Amino acid sequence: MYKCFLIKYSEIGLKGKNRNYFEGCLVTRIKNVLGKLGDYGVYREQGRVFVECPEDYDYDDTVEALGTIFGISGYAPVFVVEQTDWDSVAKGVCDYVRDYFDSHSFTFKVFCKRGDKSYFKTSPEICADAGEVLLNAFPDLKVDVHNPDVKLTVEIRNKTYIYSDCLPGPGGMPVGCNGRAMLLLSGGIDSPVAGYMIAKRGVSVDAVYFHAPPYTSERAKQKVVDLARIISRYTGPINLNIVNFTEIQMYIYETCPHEQLTIIMRRYMMRIAEILANRGDSIALVTGESIGQVASQTVQSLTCTNAVCDMPVFRPLIAFDKEDIVKISEKIGTYETSVLPYEDCCTIFVAKHPVTKPILHIIEHSEKLLEEKIDEMVKTAVDTREVIRIKD
Amino acid sequence: MEAYLDNAATTKLCKEAFEVMQKTMLEDFGNPSSLHLKGVKASEYVKNARKIIARELKCQEKEIIFTSGGTESNNMALIGTALANKRSGKHIVSTRYEHASLYNPLLFLEQQGFEVTFVEVERDGRVSPERLAEAVRNDTILVSVMYVNNEIGSLNDISALSDAVKNVNPNVIFHCDAIQAFPKFKIIPKKQGIDMMSVSSHKFGGPKGCGFLYVRDRVKLSPIIFGGGQQNGMRSGTENVGGITGMAAALEAYSLNRTDYVDRMYELKTRFVKEMLKIDGVVVNAIPCRKETTTEHNGDSENKTEQNHCFENEICKSGINQNSDLEAGIRETAPHIISVSFPKAKSEVFLHVLEMKGIYCSSGSACSSNHPAISGTLKAIGVADEYLDTTLRFSLSPETTQEEIDYAAAVIREQLPTYMRFFKK
After folding, report:
1. Separation between Cα atoms, residue A246 and residue A230, nearest integer Å
2. Total Cβ atoms within 10 A of residue A8
3. CB–CB of B352 and A214 under 8 A?
4. What ipTM describes this predicted complex?
5. Domain limits of chain B?
6. Architecture of domain B260-421 in CATH?
């Protein structure tokens, strides 16, 4: 059984003087995620992060958990030899091949990295010598330096680390290193994916859901909570704001031209999201919009909804086709929940032919009709919101 | 205040059932098939339950097969008879408005090479004996008709249906889904020409996960679940001792007070229907009524009797003797199910409005495209399109009180105008 994982990270390794900060974020994130599974040791050493597993750890659970941590480009279960003298290294390499491979007939190539540059053998020497040791110990092994079945890596640091199998990580940057943003989360397919993708760039996520009882049911709300829980596996804890939107929606419905309902509703959703972002420590908004997908996501409509925000609005799916979004949602496990058939507040009152090319000043003119009560309603909606802390 | 008006979905467990079930689970918890004392004791409970049910149905004890509930009973009845009788014919007759647990096994049988005729339902929500008989052929092996429709509460004259069918082909096996009817009505299968009957326990104060299938002696039926050979090999699997015992206890309690219970529910139903009909535009579905119109014809007076499938308040306003007419109509339906259409108040939304006020009911039918359950019942009885997704089902139990009914009616009257205003343009 492997006792240790070696964590590789790509992008943050390229950082200059900030590298220490990013590495720290990654280590914190790994500690938080693995902390739920048991007592893992996580430590940094010369451009590497190592995870030491407790005695009774579950291999599959650990691999799965590491696969959810942004910032990890790959991770390898490693065989650790405490000493670095040559005899121990040679024995370690043989033990590793004997214990961790079912068949001992394959082609291989040895790679080497020395953290300790004063080691008495150079890297090419270590590769050659380790290869010789293996060939002597296992007569059916063959060297193939161009296309080996097994790429065996020996890393000599204050201990010796031997591994061959590197699992791909999710990439990106560790969550928490790039601030926090407020995600507009509906019950659909797109917004959870948008949250996932923003988190992949190291942004922590809070979320807001617009609930319209009795037009949207408790089940619809529970569905959003469930979706938030699924993406929180990747994003870390989420503060989910549930805003009662019924009164505002009804007021718009009764007061403004029906075909503008959706666009005006969305403008108020953005306004409220920005207010909530300011109250928390979010510095941007995130939506699951994609150009042209529905009437409220044409370029003209996006311009209209964008106009109410001072904060930057990130739309990670803006140029994605629906199929591609679906593929990601299936990969991250939100699809099944997203397609549960409960009404959401955007669909119930939607006009048969909503405006697809709204003109900003006309929309603003319609909103003037709301002046009398809307500010008070927005304030009430914000003040009476429910906040749920979502943790995986 | 709270008003649970969804008793056709499920009922609260009755005290009698709870007490005896507790005993079977904590003390006499043995496996009825075990040879030792604990097993014998457990098998006594099952035997006793069988006796109680047989007494209710005036049938033999061996004619009862315990199942996991209504769905399994229906599956076993259809698939089991189809398998056992396929040499006599491959034709089955049923109706357009059966429950999914009956309809879907029929679709399965169609895929297996059986032919199924679905008979149209009359506009009053009942199945006509003539129409049913027309569908029966020489190679028909099975006819299945529900006793009480679960969505609209219409009540079929099962004896007449069975007679009509057997006049055409005496060898047909007549199955009845009595899940909503039993034990509200005293059913004696042999007298009513029922060869098989499905029952579910949690519709009358028993526990969920339990039910039975009555199978008349000498009806050919194949088991659909195989294993240790319990219940004479007809339904393998360790008997659900607690469930069976609880079901029998609930049945005993119910049948002891049946007349009282049913009368009270009819009274409450009538009261609620009258309240609903006072609201403009509201329609109560599937209550048969006779509207008498007199036309003068060359001095001859001709009485025309017209059958109408639903009560609208228009009829109430203009009808003569409307109240006694309505009460008579209600007595021709099930005592506990009321199907009401609220024009322009979408059922899913209005259901949640009532839920917020503590009133629990079901959407009678859902037909919007993003809905999983597309029900044919309302369509089958010819309800107008605009009512299809504005219909709610309220269902009573013997425990329902007049206060609950009045409260629900008051809330509906108060809330309806608001939600009609916000109907999708």
Report:
1. 26
2. 17
3. yes
4. 0.73
5. 13-256, 260-421
6. Alpha-Beta Complex (3.90)
